[in-house]
Amino acid sequence: MRFRHPDGSTVHLAYCTNVHPAEILDGVLAQLRDHCEPVRRRLGRDRLGIGLWLARDAAHALVGDPSALRGLRTELDRRGLEVVTLNGFPYEGFGAEEVKYRVYKPDWADPERLDHTTALARVLAGLLPDDVTEGTISTLPLAWRTAYDPDRAAKARTALLTLAERLDALDELTGRSIRIGLEPEPGCVVETTTDALAPLADIAHDRIGVCVDTCHLATSFEDPHTALDALTEARVSVVKSQLSAALHAEHPHLPEVRAALAAFDEPRFLHQTRTATAAGPRGTDDLGEALTTDALPDAAPWRAHFHVPLHAAPAAPLTSTLPVLKAALTRLVGGPHPLTSHLEVETYTWQALPPELRPRGRSQLADGIAAELTLARDLLTDLGLKELP
Fold first, then answer.
1. Which residues of 276-314 are buried (b: 16+ CB within 10 A; e: fewer)?
2. 3-state class of 334 per DSSP?
3. Cα-flanking dihedrals φ and ψ of residue 286, to 5°?
4. Would you give the DSSP letter of residue 348?
5. Hey, which bits of 118-199 come out as E strands?
6. In the CATH hierarchy, which top-level class contains the domain 2-246+321-387?
7. Which residues, listed in sequence order, are joined to residue 13 by a DSSP beta bridge?
8. In terms of Cα–Cα distance, which of 152, 159, 148, 149 is closest to 182?
9. Strand 134-139 and strand 280-284: pairing?
10. One matching Pfam family, short form (predicted)?
């Protein structure tokens, strides 16, 4: 979906396909047929943006076979879909029964991460619509925090600088500018937008910026206006933003609240949980740890890294951090000029929701994704953006 900002520029809205994980190219093509096109039809749109997730094997198959890349581009066009952004965070296995810490491997100190992201950039350059010259890729925020020492930090910096050089060369070759956004996430080396300032200043290349995920922003109790103003002041670009909402518990000391939270403690994904204290945020690596130990104070609200559907907050006594998303979006695109042109709805946890909240079958999932995109569209038009055909 495309929108005209009051300044005349185009803002793109997509939804991320990591909700339909596939490891190989045939699976990606099936996603387009079984999921993405039905969502587009529900929205009554001739064209729908998708934030494509390509696992390692799919990405390298496309890079290694130009005819396969052309075939994917043709299939996107045939189904009324377009791609201006990729989710490069998960490397492989995102559809596994247990993902947890595996999603942070390989990290930016590992050569495989550089090779994979280079492949993604080459693929994206070949998928961009004819009238679009800029693409974006979100990636993990350097590494998970443990075992990240100065040696690994130096390797990560070198890898990102090498990537920036490769993106410069790709631009010269194709005329397509691809930028990368480190995506701050609780528990990682770059946990907050503040944490991103120093490493990005060290890299100091305009190809490398930040991907602001509004679920992660809220989970870390960052104020959207403060965070985005600091990025602007530091001249760190917001490459893209993922529109998502975290799980919020106002009174975590109450038994009924803990019982409600326990329904979201599931074995597939990591749900980092945080609370705000006078000394700053405190947290656990997973929701179960917060519920079963004394590691997290419960006198103040908790937030968990669980991407809940934007249009459907959990039933009381829980809620979502949709207000944080709205505040962030106002700052991102509500001013005289947008801070980013690429927005991506990223609720990948539909099948991890408590059983009674999960969609039953493809049709209900498509209904839910369409409802999320409708909410996002309405937020954008309320900010003065005009939806384009």
1. beeeebebbbbbbbbbeeeebebebbbbbbbbbbbbbbb
2. coil
3. -150, 160
4. -
5. 134-139, 177-182
6. alpha beta
7. 343
8. 159
9. unpaired
10. AP_endonuc_2
Tokens of 199: 């490493």
Average pLDDT over every residue of 280-289 = 96
What the block records as the tokens of 159 is 């890898």
Sheet with 273-277, edge to edge strand ranges: 280-284, 273-277, 302-308, 245-249, 318-320
Conformational region of residue 175, where left means phi above 0, alpha means psi within -120 to 50, and beta covers everything else: left
CA–CA gap between residue 31 and residue 37 (Å, rounded): 9
**Quick one: CA dihedral 325, 331, 336, 339, positive or negative?**
negative
145, with CB counted inside 10 A (0-12, 13-18, 19+), is: middle
The pair of structure tokens assigned to 310 is: 């934007």
When pLDDT is averaged across residues 55-78 and rounded to a whole number, the result is 97
What values do phi and psi take at 25, rounded to 5? -60, -40
Q: Using alpha carbons, select from 379, 309, 352 the residue that is nearest to residue 99.
A: 352
Here the tokens at position 51 are: 């934030």
Q: What is the largest CA-CA distance in the chain?
A: 60
Domain chopping of the chain, boundaries: 2-246+321-387
Helix (H) or strand (E) holding 344: strand 342-345
Burial of residue 342 (CB within 10 Å: 0-12, 13-18, 19+) is buried
Residue with token string 């900010």: 383
Which runs of consecutive H residues, i.e. helices, occur in 234-359? 255-262, 287-292, 322-333
C-alpha to C-alpha distance for 56 and 366, rounded to whole angstroms: 26
User: pLDDT tens digits for 109-163?
Assistant: 999 999 999 999 999 999 999 999 999 999 999 999 999 999 999 999 999 999 9
The pTM score is 0.97
Is it the case that residue 44 has pLDDT exceeding 90? yes
d(CA 32, CA 382): 30
